[in-house]
From TrEMBL:
GO terms for cellular component: endoplasmic reticulum membrane. It comes from Clupea harengus (Atlantic herring). This is Derlin. It is a multi-pass membrane protein. The keyword Transmembrane helix applies. Belongs to the derlin family. GO terms for biological process: ERAD pathway. Its main location: endoplasmic reticulum. The keyword Transmembrane applies. The chain crosses the membrane at residues 57-79, 100-133, 153-185.
Amino acid sequence: MAYQTFQQEYLQIPVVTRAYTTACVLTTAAVQLELITPFQLYFNPDLILRSYQVWRLITNFLFFGPVGFNFLFNMIFLYRYCRMLEEGSFRGRTSDFVFMFLFGGLLMTIFGTFVSLVFLGQAFTIMLVYVWSRRNPNVRMNFFGLLNFQAPFLPWVLMGFSLLLGNSIIVDLLGIAVGHVYFFLEDVFPNQPGGSRWLKTPTLLKMIFDTPEEDANYNPLPEERPGGFAWGEGQRLGG
């Protein structure tokens, strides 16, 4: 009975969020069980280009370190904001969501080469948080019950939290930068006088991921409720 309930809940998670978070958890589990090592996963342009270890282009986004507070913190934020994006502003636009993944991953890979980052998963999570926060500017957030602020400040609060934990803020800055590039090209520039849409989802992705019908009885996770955890609760202004 418990297994059936878990399976039902698991299958209700949107496909992209389900696939990415599952891949991250399984990768970490494989490292914990010593089936693989982080040295087989990290981003290394030389090994990719000279030894054709192309899997590193993907696996460096899947490993968030050993199981612990940092891993759980990242997984919760990854799951919550990835799901809220997929069920909110990307509802019925799975191909566009996948294209955002590809675009963000490509930019991070290019930038990561110059800043010598070997794992980009945390930066990717910050990118998702940034895009969600900019698309929900009126949501008020509460962080650990200590800080109250509006959603667009969330990525910067997380960067400050990383700094307090002694982590490098380069990762957070990279996620914010890539998230801003995507948000500007997708949401801002097309609506400016003389602007146009530069980011166009390839037809192949639309054929693969987009479905013509939606389940009318499906209840998405409300995008205006980023809470559920003491460090990320929020409510929309005026609501």
